[in-house]
Write a structure and sequence with these properties.
The complex is a heterodimer of chains A (499) and B (1034). Chain A has 22 helices and ten strands. In chain A, the strands form five sheets. A two-stranded antiparallel ribbon of chain A has the order 1-7. Chain A has a two-stranded antiparallel sheet with strand order 2-3. Chain A has a two-stranded antiparallel sheet with strand order 4-5. The radius of gyration of chain A is 26 Å and the shape is globular. The longest helix of chain A is centred in the N-terminal third of the chain and has 26 residues, at 107-132. Helix content of chain A is 47%, strand content 6%. In chain A, helix 3 (42-50) packs antiparallel against helix 6 (107-132) and helix 6 runs antiparallel to helix 7 (140-164). With 499 residues, chain A is mainly α. The two termini of chain B are 23 Å apart. With 1034 residues, chain B is mainly beta. Chain B has ten helices and 54 strands. In chain B, a hairpin with a 6-residue loop joins strand 2 (41-44) and strand 3 (51-52). In chain B, helix 5 runs antiparallel to helix 6. Classes of the chains: A mainly alpha (499), B mainly beta (1034).
Chain lengths: 499, 1034
């Protein structure tokens, strides 16, 4: 009995002693590296840089982002489903202001895109800070690649912010602004300038060294040389300059000479991202914009390809169902990249103006399982930037020559474009709507915007997302853009339109 | 115990023989009907020892004249009889409600009778649980405990319920479920996997005051389950129980869907009636039937002139019948228990099958194996073990979209048409509304399977040092392994990517997903139990140390594009598309001390203190303490009140908490392909949320028939867990951080009334009523208001966390309902005379009623923005459960009526199906012409799924939750027929969720979680179950 008592007391003592051992309660999270792991080791910095572009890509193309509603607002794709504000951005008439309240069903789409861009910017800044702070990357090529790609992604992310939002915060731990208050935002023009600065920096670093970017970094089919990377940086810079204008007046003020310089040094083959079955690289928005039962090709685009087709499906049950195109002069792509839809799947109670008689089938194979390449930036897009820069700097013949050697001809089978500004601008417009259909994010929206073609009442950009304003302690109601009869000013809300 | 008492009596007798003036008296103890009461305890007041009555109610005891006999028996009022010169005593006991003599063991210093409790613990014995044998412990409690609310987030069999005791004290980032103990083991798995037939009793420890003993895990209360053991048998006996149940599960109610449409029909449509709906303006290929997609169809539907949905379809099917079926349920249970001098044993097996109500799904299958063993090794040493091994296999719809799609299909759809390759259930079964797919195809084609192996074991030893001190040593273990596999076969059709020959469909080439996880929880506890009497003062106490060690690991893999069909292994893929894994560990040390003082069963005081240290707490907040102080006064022990048999008042104050999630204190980067992305700022100060509760209670038994328990509890929960959004570029790219802030206050009123209306030998009738009224409010929130709660299909959220607001409030938009509202938001150039209130109670433009122009108008705020405010409240006004048990000879009837008064549900399903004009409210066939509305009007209400007051419905209900009608064969019959081999036969017809009275328009008002009563499109509907049970006792 005494023995047992003794044993019990001993065992109790052991437990208590165990309890007093301090380290018992020290547990680490084995599922995540620490800040130190991530930013204090050279090889880790290289890896982190490798994920930067994917953050941007997801921000551009995930279902959660703004790509889908930009496509419907631009009358490039039509879809009356409410999802991700596709319907709210394509009402006719466009008497719907962007609902910038945190409670709006689709408030998340601007917040998501915004957050992905800043996610990229912040991590890139941390990488650069670590490098300049002395963290050594052993291989000089890797070091240059890491710095250059960090700068590139900062440029692309700021570029997207400039394209989408009226203002944003230019933050960079290497420069002065590190702790902005809500009021310290910069207008989109300044944000675009900052973006170009980062891209210039990326170009400078990559041009003075040689490296090979692994395929996984940009989701490409094969590794990318530093010289090809420089081309990509140049195209991205040209895009930002060309796509930023909110109206025709601003279009005139673009430094087109600079666009020409960038675009001429731009990509010479498609920059394609390879779908990996919905894992890291999935142009999800593009899928919804073309999937059976979802997006149809807007009549505006059908009419571009075949002018005998109506450019608009009037909102009437008696509007005659447009027949399949038989026009021999139509853009050839109407039959290769698109297919006739003999009966609409969209809900007529949402308005016949959403109806269309064609859909895009160009990426159907890809979207069966998201396996295969899809152009993110086509060579054709760079061609059009080159042509556009020439056209606005007076080199009409040069512009026409580029167009007449481009997909306008090779895929569309369209007649040579005359060397006059209107024809050239129209041809570029045509290619952006037809050839670049659902590539990139918002191309057609930016294109319509700068030509004053967005339907009257369409917001020309988004306000800072409500959820971000909340984080800064701002109280609602939050400012916004869009709507007819009240706010259209041609600066924030379209006051013109193609119809 | 009785044996032990008898033994003591013999000893006593031997001792007392030595004294003079003592003599032996005899007596009988009977009830008021003259029936003998066996096992009644007979003692002499103020002296040790005593005896108990035999089977005929007789006793023998050595007494002295002037002694007072104290006679007690379970179910009867205690009686005292003075010893005069008589040598024989005939004593009658008056039946008394049993509640007070129940013994509570959870959250107290030592086993305590209900009469002497100072905090709220509700005990349910097997009799209350097995009237309608629950299919699992998950469903055994509803309507039986005041202050307990339940909901089933999904209605599928085997799904884990949502249980809440009193108010929901914690903001949504942590759960509202109580800590569950099963034979002392902290259960991390699902209560739905615990079989009910093994259960001896349940103790429900409701608020933080009562549950303080469980510290940082018990902020939501505690439910302690005790299973049966051999110790309840007489020595040297064996008992065998065999119970079999077979039943049927079906959908009690189909949704009301439109059976008419708004489109113009072709002039010759009747020629095609029975084949398809021939719309005007559409050209069909010859031989077309059903409503499926055909590339040969051209043209579109066009609404007819009136826009009313009153035109017939060419074919009208009830498609809900196609996916819902009547499923079966089986229970096969056998238990064997035995008791010998030093060993007792209880072992059981249960097989439980519930097919559920969805076609092509196997439902839920479970086997439970139990072994409970107690072994007295020496007088001072006893070892015990309880073990439960559970295997489950679940086969549920892998794609809940089927529940939505079946409602969206127009009734002319033929779900049974073949795909282009001959596979059944043509995917593109709808030409128009073409993004809706055949609900049967995925159900049929996808092969989901989940398996779970779960072991819960407790190993303990009790070492008795002296009469007043003993030590418990416990080691518990819980291991749960789960596996999930989903095979999407190579030849699975998808919507697009194909050719005209395949109607646009293409094969996906399939995919394989697998998840596997294991969690292991090992707890070690040492408890010193102390109990001693000092004169009139009973003192009980415990000193305890608990070490908790939890480990989890899991991984998942996904690969797409099978190379060879029907070879579901990962090597059959070119590469693994994605995979992931995680490992978590947590360790906690808890110390606690509790003492209770009982002065002559009159004045009762409890106090406890606990200190928890956990690796889950931030490094600067590693140790947190909890305490309780409670007291009670049994008034009727002092003062006699006519008609009142027992009256006690009590009060308690205590604190308890909830632990944070595993990674909340850490800085977190998301890892993908070896690349780290910033996510979460760490917080070394993160501590458990803290609930402090004050409760006052009154317990009364009166008129020998009734018992009443009334409790008012009020709690304040501080240090709420908030996932605070951060401006990422100011926080190293991190976009969130867990912080402690915010306060929720709540109060709860609980009433429990028991009545034994009639208690005769042949006929008895008793009623138990539980009532609770819960209020909860967010009194402080230092961040911006935010929405929470899961929704289906990307729909908006509506539950709103806002300072000063009820916790459970729904926020959204509204339409103008009065002309007064309209007068404040008149558009330019309009006057109020341009508007009128329509027949639905909404303001519309004057003269538009019944026309396509009729549309509801969005309510605006004075600043011109859309009005956004409170549109509903998920909290009910009160909950009430009324159970009745009637017995006449061998026949017993039991029914439980469960009442929820008020409490809104957001009926998102109704909103979603309006999108495609499928809602029954839109069907205008046979509607009075003055009240007809166009589909345009309903589309203006639908308003692209905007969260709107229109879709908030009162989901109050009166439910016939449980019914049983049983017959037990008499002992006489059994003796005669089976010669004592069969000791009992009980046959029962059972109904579960039998009938509901409600105004709620969905399948069932009991939907969603308690926190987010949201009726989404992917919800597996609750079913009704009718079953027959036959039990043999040997």
């Amino acid at each position: 009995m005494k023995k047992i008592k003794f044993l019990s007391v001993i065992s109790l003592a052991i437990f208590v002693a165990l309890g007093c051992k301090k380290s018992v309660l020290e547990v680490t999270d084995q599922n995540t590296p620490t800040f130190k792991d991530v930013y204090s080791d050279g090889s880790s910095l290289v890896k982190v840089a490798g994920g930067l572009f994917n953050t941007i890509y997801v921000g551009e193309h995930a279902y959660n982002g703004v790509e889908m509603c930009l496509a419907t607002a631009a009358d490039n794709v039509t879809c009356s489903w409410g999802n991700q504000a596709m319907r709210d951005m394509s009402w006719e008439p466009r008497n719907h202001a962007w609902d910038n309240s945190a409670a709006y069903s689709y408030a998340g789409i601007t917040e998501f895109t915004w957050a992905q861009m800043y996610g990229t910017i912040g991590v890139a800044a941390n990488i650069l800070q670590a490098i300049y702070g002395g963290t050594k990357i052993d291989n000089p090529g890797d070091e240059a690649m890491t710095r250059s790609v960090s700068r590139f992604t900062q440029g692309v992310a700021y570029g997207n912010l400039a394209l989408l939002f009226d203002k944003a915060y230019v933050v960079d731990s290497l420069s002065s602004v590190h702790n902005p208050g809500y009021d310290n935002s910069s207008p989109y023009t300044s944000v675009a300038n900052a973006a170009l600065g980062y891209l210039d920096s990326a170009i400078a670093i990559a041009s003075s060294s040689s490296f090979t970017i692994p395929a996984s970094w940009f989701g490409t089919a094969s590794d990318m040389s530093s010289s090809d990377f420089v081309k990509l940086c140049n195209t991205c810079a040209a895009r930002i300059l060309s796509y930023t204008p909110r109206n025709k007046t601003q279009l005139q003020a673009v430094n087109w000479a600079k666009v020409k310089t960038y675009a001429d040094a731009g990509i010479t083959t498609d920059f394609s991202v390879v779908g990996d079955s919905y894992t890291n690289w999935y142009d999800e928005a593009g899928d919804y914009l073309t999937y059976d039962g979802w997006g149809l090709t807007d009549m505006y685009v059908v009419n571009l390809m075949d002018p005998t087709e109506p450019a608009h499906w009037d909102d009437s049950p008696t509007f005659p169902y447009p027949p399949v195109s038989t026009n021999p002069n139509a853009d050839k792509r109407l039959n290769t990249d698109f297919e006739y839809v003999s009966s609409n799947w969209l809900n007529p109670t949402r308005g016949y103006y959403h109806f269309s008689n064609y859909r895009s089938n160009r990426y159907d194979q890809l979207y069966i399982s998201d396996i295969g390449p899809k152009p993110e930036i086509m060579k054709a897009e760079n061609d059009m930037l080159r042509a556009e820069a020439r056209a606005y700097t007076g080199d009409l013949a040069g512009a026409a020559a580029i167009i007449n050697a481009s997909t306008w001809k090779t895929r569309g089978g369209l007649p040579d474009v005359a060397a006059d500004l209107t024809s050239i601008v129209n041809a570029i417009h045509h290619e952006r709507f037809v050839e670049m259909y659902t590539t990139g994010m918002g191309l057609q929206f930016f294109e319509m915007r700068k030509l004053n073609l967005l339907q009257k009442g369409t917001p020309l950009h988004f306000p800072i997302p409500a959820q971000e304003m909340q984080k800064f302690g701002q109280n609602p109601p939050y400012y916004t853009f869009g709507d007819l009869y009240s706010t259209e000013d041609g600066i924030n809300t379209s006051n013109a339109g193609w119809r | 115990m009785r044996k032990f008492a008898s033994l003591l009596t013999v000893l006593m007798l031997l001792c007392t023989l030595a004294f003079a003036q003592t003599r032996t008296v005899t007596g009988t103890v009977k009830d008021d009907n003259g029936q003998p009461i066996p096992g009644a305890s007979v003692t002499i007041k103020g002296k040790k020892g005593g005896t108990s009555t035999d089977a005929k109610g007789a006793f023998k005891l050595v007494v002295s004249t002037g002694n007072t006999l104290v006679i007690t028996a379970v179910g009867y009022a205690q009686r005292e009889v003075s010893v005069d010169n008589s040598s024989s005593f005939d004593i009658n006991l008056i039946p008394q409600r049993t509640d007070l003599t129940e013994v509570i063991v959870t959250s107290v210093a030592g086993a305590t009778t209900k009469a002497n409790m100072t905090v709220s613990v509700t005990k349910l014995n097997a009799d209350k649980l097995t009237q309608v044998p629950a299919t699992s412990m998950a469903s055994a409690l509803q309507g039986k405990v005041a202050g307990l609310q339940m909901a089933s987030p999904q209605g599928n069999p085997g799904s884990e319920p949502d249980i809440q005791l009193r108010a929901d004290n914690n903001l949504p980032n942590v759960g509202s479920g109580p800590l569950i103990l099963i034979d002392g083991v902290i259960l991390n798995g699902s209560l739905a996997d615990i079989n009910a037939d093994d259960v001896e009793s349940i103790e429900v420890v409701k608020g933080a005051a009562a549950s303080a003993l469980y510290g940082s895990r018990a902020g939501n209360g505690v439910i302690a389950i005790t299973t049966k053991r051999g110790s309840r048998l007489n020595v040297n006996t064996v008992a065998v129980t065999v119970r079999n149940e077979i039943g049927f599960q079906n959908l009690p109610k189909e949704l009301s869907l439109a059976t008419h449409h708004q489109y113009a029909l072709a002039s010759d449509w009747q020629q095609y009636q029975g084949q398809y709906t021939k719309y005007a303006g559409v050209t069909y290929p010859s031989g077309y039937t059903g409503a499926g997609y055909s590339p040969l169809i051209s043209g579109n539907q066009t609404p007819d002139a009136d826009h009313y949905m009153d035109n017939p379809f060419g074919v009208t099917n009830d498609l809900q019948k196609a996916i819902f079926r009547t499923g079966n349920n089986f229970t096969n249970f056998v238990s064997v228990s035995s008791r010998s001098e030093k060993t007792n044993l209880y072992t059981s097996f249960e097989n439980n099958v519930q097919q559920g109500i969805v076609v092509f799904t196997g439902g839920y299958q479970r086997q439970n194996f139990r072994l409970n063993l107690d072994q007295q090794i020496a007088k001072w040493l006893k070892i015990s073990t309880s073990n439960l091994y559970i295997t489950t296999e679940t086969n549920q719809p892998s794609d809940a979209g089927s529940f939505f799609n079946v409602l969206l299909m127009t009734p002319d759809v033929n779900l049974y048409q073949a795909n282009p390759d001959g596979q059944p259930y043509y995917l593109r079964t709808e030409q128009f509304l073409g993004n809706n797919t055949n609900p049967l195809y995925d159900l049929w084609k996808y092969k989901p399977d989940s398996k779970d192996r779960h072991w819960i074991g407790d190993y303990s030893a009790n070492v008795k040092f002296t009469s007043w001190a003993n030590l418990d040593l416990n080691q518990t273990i819980e291991i749960e392994d789960s596996r999930y596999t989903l095979v999407v076969p190579k030849d699975t059709w998808t919507f697009s990517g194909g050719t005209a020959a395949t109607n646009g469909e293409a094969y996906t080439n399939g995919s394989l997903s697998q998840n596997s996880s294991e969690s292991i929880n090992k707890n070690t506890q040492v408890t010193l139990n102390l109990t001693k009497k000092f004169g009139g003062l009973d003192v009980k106490g415990k000193l305890s140390y608990l070490y908790e060690n939890a480990h989890y690991e899991g991984f998942n893999e996904y690969a797409s594009q099978f190379q060879y069909p029907d070879v579901p292994v990962f090597a059959n893929f070119t590469n693994i598309t994605s995979g992931g894994s995680s490992i978590t560990d947590s360790r906690t040390q808890d110390y606690f001390a509790i003492a209770s003082l009982n002065w002559k069963n009159k004045y009762l005081v409890d106090g406890m203190f606990r200190q928890d240290g956990s690796s889950l707490f931030g490094s600067n907040a590693r140790w947190n303490s909890y305490y309780r102080i409670s007291g009670a006064y049994r008034i009727t022990q002092d003062i006699r009140i006519p008609g009142i048999d027992e009256l006690k008042i009590r009060a308690a104050y205590g604190t308890a908490g909830i632990r944070p999630g595993f990674d909340w204190q850490y800085e977190v980067f998301l890892l993908s392909n070896g690349v780290a992305t910033a996510l979460q700022e760490g917080n070394n100060d993160l501590k458990p949320s803290n609930t402090a509760e004050t409760e006052v209670g009154l317990d009364a038994n009166f008129l020998k028939k009734f018992s009443l328990e009334a409790v008012y509890a009020s709690s304040v929960t501080t240090n709420q867990y908030l996932n605070v959004p951060l401006v990422a570029f100011l926080n190293n790219g991190h976009s969130q951080q867990w912080q402690n802030a915010g306060t929720v206050k709540s109060n709860t009123l609980e009433l429990t009334l028991g009545a034994d209306w009639v208690k005769h030998k042949d006929f008895s009738w008793s009623t138990n009523i539980v009532f609770s009224r819960i209020r909860q409010k967010i009194t402080s929130l230092p961040i911006k208001p935010y929405l929470y709660g899961g929704t289906d299909g990307g729909g908006g959220q509506m539950f709103y966390i806002k300072q000063g607001e009820t916790y459970g409030a729904m926020y959204g938009y509204d339409y103008v309902r009065t002309l007064d509202q309209m007068s404040h938001q008149l558009p330019a150039g309009k006057s109020i005379s341009d508007y009128e209130v329509n027949s639905d109670g909404f303001v519309v433009a004057k003269g538009t009623q019944g026309t396509p122009q009729e549309a509801v108008i969005q309510l605006k705020s004075p600043d011109g923005s859309l009005w956004y405010g409170k549109i509903g409240d998920g909290n009910p006004n009160f909950n009430m459960g009324v159970s009745n048990t009637l017995k006449y000879k061998g026949i017993s009837l039991y029914f439980l009526i469960d009442v929820k008064d008020g409490g809104d549900v957001y009926n998102a399903r109704s909103e979603w199906i309006t999108r495609d004009n499928r809602n029954g409210i839109e069907d205008m066939y046979g509607v009075d012409p003055s009240k007809k509305k166009t589909y345009d009007y309903f589309q203006s209400i639908y308003n692209v799924n905007q969260i709107n007051r229109y879709w908030v419905e009162n989901a109050g209900y009166i439910k016939l939750r449980e019914v049983s009608l049983g017959y037990s064969f008499s002992n006489k019959f059994l003796d005669r027929t089976f010669k004592g081999v069969v000791k009992g036969i009980t046959a029962k017809a059972i109904g579960r969720n039998l009938a509901t009275i409600t105004n709620y328009s969905g399948y069932d008002p009991e939907v969603g979680t308690l926190r987010t009563p949201y009726d989404g499109i992917n919800h597996y509907p609750n079913f009704r179950n009718i079953a027959f049970s036959l039990q043999f006792d040997f």
